[in-house]
Specification:
The complex is a heterodimer of chains A (932) and B (227). Chain A contains 28 helices and 26 strands. With 932 residues, chain A is α+β, with helices and mostly antiparallel strands. In chain A, α8 crosses α11. The radius of gyration of chain A is 38 Å and the shape is globular. With 227 residues, chain B is of the alpha/beta class. Chain B has a single domain, classed as Rossmann fold (3-Layer(aba) Sandwich), CATH 3.40.50.300. Chain B has six helices and ten strands; from the N terminus they run βββαββαβαααβαβββ. Classes of the chains: A alpha+beta (932), B alpha/beta (227). The interface between A and B is medium-sized, with 25 and 34 residues.
């Protein structure tokens, strides 16, 4: 049986090769999905951690156990200390560092030196594990290994803050008044060193030593020996154990366990009272929300591709059986069991599927790497590669894919194994309409998709709030575009023969014999081509649609970031508040040196902007309306900011000019007019966050202004989303300064093209600036573009397109090779009768035009229509709470040219191959062939 | 029109085989007058089809010359040969050779299109006549898949005839037909030579059909054995 199978497969090697290709692609695509997803989740998780570090400057995953043990009779200290090590294995994560910080409650000390300035003071004896490795000594030495000096004094080191605030001296010895050792001796300490925090060592100190005014740190070993264990009962000891979990060892698959265990630790474990709520829970929550959204979106985007792949396999295997029909029916008529034939094909399917898996699974890894490196539709950047790991989940997906391939290859066999030669002849004589034509499937599909289009269009706003609150969307939203494409494609197939007939009627008179045959062939036998034509239409239109989706989503996200950031660079320094003698703030601030900004050689220009997002307007006696107040130098501001045309009623610069023209003029956000009936020319009084007020004259209303979002969507605790208005007041900077004096301002800068973030960091560091707010547009845009959802979307769309194109190219070629092989005899006859080779080429080109070119054109039309209609809807599902600007549809000619280019290349290759086959065909041989 | 429609001078044809050149034709001379129903007979592998394909210009002889209606095929370009085949020749093949997407009428008409003839009422009449001649006047609108092998072959004959060719080449046209139908087909050929003055060169190995021929040319191992 195996021999027969291999022999049979060898005979149809091209067919089997394409089937294999289909299997490989289906398996690879299916497998790439979980692979990519896992890698993307891992990266996203790590991104969340690094983001946390960047914003908080702290280790992102810490579990802190804190207890105050007064006369620790129960041995809590020992238990907690031991338990801290178990937490790592409980969470299944690695250990970065475990920090034990013990301190005995502060107690009065007396210095041995009689100094005038010496006063009574309390100090606390502490130990911190591994302190000797992390403290940066600025004076003196570290405590020695045994921790005591030759006089029996405990050696301690103190922070600079302790030294200064307590007026201690290096080398000073002190005696604790009431604190005694377990055996009743005095406790004496000697300050041997002064340390500070090493700025490079970011994560060791959980509490800045500069804030530890009372702690004297002794050797941890000695501390344990003297005060812990059974001796601990004598003291009032505070313990803090910090488990710094190696966050880099945490992968996406561990999250649910970590969440469960954290929940357990905090609420159920024996140690729940000592465990402080870990901050990482919010990081993981954030991650989970993103994850749900990504997985749903990516899956839905992939489904059409997978369906297409399965359809491809069905088509090719169907075609193969078509070719083998004679053979099968002859075998059948000679008494072979149906089961035997079926078995033969199932073996063949198994063989192909297994071979497909062997190639497809590793290829899936490559696919997911490509997915992860897509920057844009059909654009790759391999520098930021994903780490791909195979898991059992991958295997499950692979098995599902293999089942689908096996079924797709075998199903046609079931149908064909029933046919005996008698049936076959009968079937050949009957011309059937396709089932979909009879059922009017095209009209039904178009109807359903249009229904989806209208209902979702009406509820566009609801959709975005649904998305924002993390709820699942109606799948019809995603599917209706695909349904529309299929429906329109089928509808085109319905009218295509009529089109050909129409053309024939027009050119009938001038049409040569070859043209005549091609027309007749299409009109009579066009139905055979329907499947491949549908493939072609779907490839082109899906390609166009996906290119538009990808481009639109990405560009809108980038544009939105651009708008929200406002300028290339925004720096707000920390201004120390000026207080009067009694320490009450005067409302005045110390202005940091402004001249240093002139040395920003990476900037084209910069300007001061007053930005106060806690300003307000008094309403009635007690009411306050929160507003965002901006004070700008109109000219400079206008030079470095930009608002796209069409979203404000007037040109952006006109507003700035209006503002510049009136000294106390203010621009208000449009909602002032719609909600509170303000009018141009009215005067308005507003307060800054310090409460000082001033008055301005309204010059105009704007809908959009750099950084301003008209509404903010708030997700309520119950999961619902509400939209609230944001109000904006823009005044002239000079006017505000005149009224209020110099207030903390921001520096907005327009950067040179090649300005790197490093140059900005260097500038900040060199000038020793303390930064309150920092915005760098290029970094934010980079982050936007590498957002896993966007990147994944681009990846899936690109890969889907490439796979479809490949299938389509192969399918198209197979169809035509078969169609030529099938007609070899006829071509031989025509050639013998005197038809020139070129005329046969002409005939084939004609047929290609009717099937290929027509389908491509239809695909372009359908793709265009689908993009127009459905992209805005799909886009909504990508809405983020940060989306401010109204979305707009973006197509780039270059994307479409690339698409057309690839399609044209595939078409040319297939025509080339066909002509090659045709020219290598020998007429006399072809005629012979027919006689066999 | 010269009286001799087909004339060959010492036609030889060799094929390259691993064992050296194989001579399929070893010098064939013949003259067939116009309006003759000539049968080329011989066993399988005797060189009938090779000779036929050389005469109808699909193949070139290794040596020797072919004259069709006084024209030496050697002097013709590929294009001129194609033209010759389209206008002066008609073909009937052993197996079904109808264009499947055309019905019987269109198939017959197609040879007229090939020959560059006007498609009009006159041509329509000619097609109908040809189909009636082969006895299929009532099946003109049937597709080839809806006809039996014998019917299809008769349509093919009508097609080979429609554009008024000088010669019809029929390579084993009866091989796939039952004997009654074979006889009928042969009779049609004979009638065509009578009615239209067409020369017919038919190959066959069916001895029962030889009687209808005006002229018999027998081949054996690449050589002419009679006359």
């Amino acid at each position: 049986m195996l021999g027969i199978m291999l022999q049979k497969m060898w005979q149809k090697k091209w067919m089997n090769l394409s089937l294999l290709l289909g299997c490989v692609l289906l398996i690879a695509t299916t497998v790439s999905f979980p692979l990519y997803q896992k890698a993307a989740y891992d990266r996203m998780l790590q991104d969340e951690f690094t983001k946390y570090i960047a914003s908080e400057g702290r280790w992102p995953m810490i579990i802190r156990m804190s207890a105050n043990c007064n006369k620790d009779k129960k041995g809590t200290i020992g238990k907690v200390t031991n338990y801290s090590k178990e937490i790592y294995s409980l969470l299944g994560a690695g250990e970065y560092l475990t920090l034990y910080y013990y301190s005995i409650f502060r107690a009065p000390v007396k210095s041995d030196i009689n100094r005038d300035d010496a006063s009574d003071m309390d100090l606390s004896l502490s130990s911190m594990s591994d302190l000797h490795e992390h403290a940066k000594l600025i004076n003196g030495d570290m405590y020695s290994e045994d921790g005591v000096d030759e006089d029996g004094n405990i050696e301690v080191i103190v922070s600079q803050a302790t030294l200064v605030s307590r007026g201690l001296l290096l080398g000073e010895t002190l005696k604790f008044d009431r604190l005694k050792t377990a055996d009743g001796k005095d406790i004496r300490i000697r300050i041997v060193g002064v340390f500070t925090k090493d700025e490079q060592d970011k994560f060791y100190f959980q509490e800045n030593p500069e804030n530890l005014y009372e702690s004297c740190f002794m050797s941890p070993d000695l501390f344990n020996e003297m005060f812990l264990g059974d001796k601990s009962e004598g003291y009032n000891i505070n313990i803090d154990v910090y488990d710094l979990i190696d966050y880099e060892s945490v992968t996406a698959s561990m999250i649910s366990n970590i969440n469960d265990q954290t929940e357990y630790l905090c609420n159920k474990s024996a140690y729940k009272s000592v465990i402080k709520d870990p901050a990482y829970q919010s990081i993981l929550e954030e991650y989970e929300i993103k994850k749900v959204r990504i997985s749903a979106t990516l899956l839905i985007l992939q489904i059409p591709v997978l369906v297409l792949l399965a359809a491809f396999l069905l088509m090719i295997s169907g075609q193969m059986y078509e070719m083998e029909r004679n053979e099968i029916s002859v075998i059948k008529s000679r008494g072979s069991y149906r089961g035997q034939i079926l078995l033969l094909y199932i073996y063949q399917g198994l063989f192909l599927t297994i071979l497909g898996a062997v190639i497809g699974i590793p290829l899936g890894g490559l696919f997911s790497r490509i997915l992860g490196s897509t920057r844009n539709f059909l654009e790759f950047d391999f520098s930021s590669s994903l780490k791909i790991t195979y898991t059992t989940e991958t295997l499950v997906y692979a098995l599902i894919a293999m089942t689908v391939t096996l079924l797709s290859i075998s199903i046609p066999a079931i149908k064909h194994s029933k046919v005996s030669i008698v049936h076959l002849k009968q079937q050949k004589a009957i011309k059937k309409r396709s089932l979909w034509e009879i059922l009017f499937l095209d009209i039904i599909l178009i109807g359903v998709s249009l229904y989806g289009f209208y209902t979702f269009n009406k509820r566009m706003k609801d959709i975005s709030t649904t998305v924002l609150s993390g709820q699942k969307l109606d799948p019809l939203l995603y599917v209706s575009s695909s349904l529309f494409i299929v429906g329109m494609g089928l509808f085109f197939l319905r009218i295509q023969p009529l089109l050909v007939k129409l053309i024939y009627l027009c050119v009938r008179k001038i049409c040569g014999p070859a043209g005549y045959i091609s027309f007749m062939e299409n009109i009579k036998n066009g139905r055979k081509m329907q499947l491949i034509m549908l493939f072609l239409i779907m490839t082109v239109s899906l390609g166009m649609f996906h290119a538009t989706v990808a481009r639109t989503i990405l560009e809108n996200a980038v544009e939105n970031t651009d708008y929200r950031d406002g300028a290339d660079l925004i720096i707000k320094e920390n201004w120390p508040a000026i207080t009067d003698q009694s320490g009450v703030p005067t409302g005045q601030y110390m202005e940091p040196d402004y001249n240093k900004y002139a040395s920003m050689d990476f900037a084209n220009s910069y300007t001061k902007v007053f930005y106060d997002d806690r300003a307000f307007i008094k309403q009635g006696k007690t009411g306050r309306l929160s507003v965002t107040l901006m004070g700008i130098h109109t000219r400079e501001f206008g030079q470095m900011t930009f608002i796209r045309q069409g979203i404000n009623p007037k040109q952006y610069y006109e507003y700035l000019n209006e503002l510049a023209a009136v000294e106390d003029g203010v621009l208000l956000s449009e909602n002032f007019m719609s909600k509170y009936d303000y009018k141009v020319g009215d005067s308005i009084t507003f307060n800054n966050s310090d409460g000082t007020s001033t008055t301005g004259t309204i010059v105009d209303f704007v809908s959009y202004f750099p950084t301003y979002s008209p509404t903010v969507t708030v997700i309520n605790p119950d999961g619902s989303a509400t939209t609230e208005d944001n109000f904006l007041v823009v005044a002239q900077y000079a006017r505000l300064k005149k009224q209020w004096g110099v207030k903390p301002y921001e520096i907005w800068a327009d950067l040179k093209e090649d300005a790197s973030p490093d140059a900005v960091y260097d500038f900040i560091e060199k000038n020793n600036m303390k930064i309150k707010r920092y915005v760098n547009k290029s970094e934010d845009i980079e982050n936007t573009m590498t957002d896993p959802l966007l990147q994944g979307t681009n990846g899936v769309l690109t890969m889907g397109f490439v796979v479809t194109l490949l299938l389509c190219g192969v399918g198209y070629l197979i169809y035509w090779i078969m169609s030529i092989r099938e007609r070899e005899l006829i071509f031989g006859v025509l050639r013998a009768c005197g038809l020139h080779k070129n005329e046969i080429v002409h005939l084939l080109v004609n047929e290609q035009i009717f099937s290929g070119l027509f389908s491509i054109l239809a695909g372009i039309g359908i793709g265009y229509l689908t993009s127009r209609m459905f992209v805005p809807m799909l886009q909504t599902s990508y809405a983020t709470s940060e989306q401010v600007l109204p979305m707009r549809l973006i197509t780039r000619a270059s994307d479409l040219y690339r698409l057309y280019g690839i399609i044209a290349a595939v078409m040319f290759i297939s025509i080339f191959v066909l002509i090659f086959i045709l020219f290598s065909m020998n007429v006399t041989k072809a005629l012979k062939l027919g006689e066999e | 029109m010269s009286d001799i429609m087909i004339k060959t001078n010492n036609i030889k044809r060799s094929f390259q085989t691993p064992a050296g050149p194989f001579w399929a034709l070893k010098g064939i001379d013949m003259e067939i007058p116009a309006g003759t129903f000539a049968i080329l007979k011989g066993r399988s592998g005797s060189g009938k089809t090779t000779l036929m394909n050389i005469i109808n210009s699909l193949d070139d002889p290794t040596e020797g010359e072919v004259f069709i209606d006084g024209v030496n095929l050697k002097d013709l370009s590929d294009k001129e040969r194609e033209n010759l085949r389209r206008t002066k020749m008609g073909f009937v093949f052993q197996s079904v050779s109808l264009i499947p997407s055309l019905n019987a009428f269109q198939n017959v008409e197609f040879s007229m299109r090939m020959a560059g003839m006007k498609i009009n009422r006159e041509s329509q009449k000619r097609v109908e006549d040809c189909l009636k001649l082969v006895g299929l006047g009532n099946r003109m609108n049937h597709m080839s898949a809806e006809m039996s092998g014998g019917e299809q072959q008769r349509v093919a004959i009508a097609r080979s005839l429609a554009h008024h060719p000088g010669i019809i080449f029929a390579d084993e046209p009866t091989a796939e037909l039952d004997s009654a139908m074979a006889v009928k087909v042969t009779e049609i050929f004979k009638e065509m030579t009578r009615r239209e003055g067409i020369t017919v060169l038919m190959t066959t190995h069916d001895v029962g059909l030889m009687g209808a021929a005006d002229m018999l040319i027998e081949l054996e191992n690449g050589e002419r054995v009679n006359g």
